[in-house]
Amino acid sequence: xxxxxxxxxxxxxxxxxxxxxxxxxxxxxxxxxxxxxxxxxxxxxxxxxxxxxxxxxxxxxxxxxxxxxxxxxxxxxxxxxxxxxxxxxxxxxxxxxxxxxxxxxxxxxxxxxxxxxxxxxxxxxxxxxxxxxxxxxxxxxxxxxxxxxxxxxxxxxxxxxxxxxxxxxxxxxxxxxxxxxxxxxxxxxxxxxxxxxxxxxxxxxxxxxxxxxxxxxxxxxxxxxxxxxxxxxxxxxxxxxxxxxxxxxxxxxxxxxxxxxxxxxxxxxxxxxxxxxxxxxxxxxxxxxxxxxxxxxxxxxxxxxxxxxxxxxxxxxxxxxxxxxxxxxxxxxxxxxxxxxxxxxxxxxxxxxxxxxxxxxxxxxxxxxxxxxxxxxxxxxxxxxxxxxxxxxxxxxxxxxxxxxxxxxxxxxx
Length: 414
Known about the structure:
Layout: H1 8-18, E1 25-28, E2 35-38, E3 43-44, E4 51-54, E5 61-69, E6 73-81, E7 88-89, H2 107-110, E8 113-114, H3 123-126, E9 130-139, E10 142-152, H4 154-157, E11 160-163, E12 170-173, E13 183-189, H5 198-208, E14 213-216, E15 231-232, H6 233-244, E16 249-258, H7 263-272, E17 279-283, E18 300-302, E19 305-306, E20 331-336, H8 345-356, E21 363-367, H9 390-411
C-alpha cells in the first residue's frame, strides 16, 4: 500500500512554492549557451511534460540522457540530429537512436531501465515519493547542458485514509485541487492481477485528476473483492453508499473502475445497480462475468448465491456478454492487441460494444501492439514490458487515462 499522509503536506507546500513561477523553467550550463526548457517543475508523475534543448550547434548530434535513483540506478538515452535553429524539441524530434521509435517528450522517462534487472514492479519504486530525474545533453561526448526534473509520486501528492468501519475495508483518496460544487466520484475494485497493486494506483491517479475515489480492498476481512476474486454484492453496495455520502460527491455521478479480472465486476455493478452507479471504466478484461478458475468459484455473490458466470474465456458468446446498454452513463473500455493474459481481449470488447450500441460519451480503445497492463498510469517504467511492446503499451496507457479524465470532467455538472 502506498505511503499516505506523511509527505502530503510537504508536497502541497512544494507545489505552492512553484505555483507563482512561469509556465516554463530553464536550466543548463549558461543562459547564453545550450540549455533545457521544461514546461513544469516540479510536476506530478501523471502529468506529461514538454521538454526541449535550445542553443545547440546545428549540424551535429546531441545525446539526451536521463538517470534516476529509485531502488537502483535507472538510465535511458536518445540521440537526435540538431536542426538549423539549434533547437531539439523532444516532443516532435525523431530520435535517431533510442529505446522508442517516435517523437515522445516522455520517452526518456518511461523507458528508464536498470542494468541487469527487470521492470519496476512495486509502487514504492515510482509511485510513492519524489523521484529526481537528471537530464544531460551531450555533443561530441561533452556535456553541454544539465537539468534536474522533480517528479512527485502519486503517494506524495494524493492524501488517503483507511475506511474499515462501514461494512467494507478500503482506502479513500481525497481529490487534489479546489473544485467548486459537487464532483463525480469513482469506486475502484481491486484484485485485478496477482501481486500488482493496480487498484491503489488507479485510485490515486483518479484523485490526482481531482475526483474523490474509494479503493475497495482486495484483502478485506469483511469482504470486498477477495484474493479468490469473488465480489460480494452487499459489500459493493455498502461501499457505494458510503462514497455517495461523502462531502463534495455528486451521488448521481458515481463510476465503478475495474481492470483485468475486475473489469467485468465493474460492468456488472453498473448494469445491476443503476440507481447507485452512473458509468464504468473496464480495461483489459472480459465483458461477461467469468467464474474464477481453475476450480470454479463464484465471481459475484448476492445474498450468498452465485451470480451466473461462464467458466471459460476462449470463446466469446453473445449470451455471456452483459447487457451493457442498460448502463445509463458513459463507459470506457480498452483492450490490448498483444494481451498475454487474455489473448482475445479485443473480441470480448467488440462483443460488448455490439451489445452496448451507440451511446454518447463512450470510449472503446483498441491498443494494437500493447500488452495486458495498459491500465497502469503512464510516464513511468512501472510494470512496463520490455521492447518491442513497451512503446505500444505506454501509448495505450496515455490514451486510456486521457479518456478516463476526459469522461469524468464531461460528467461534472459544475
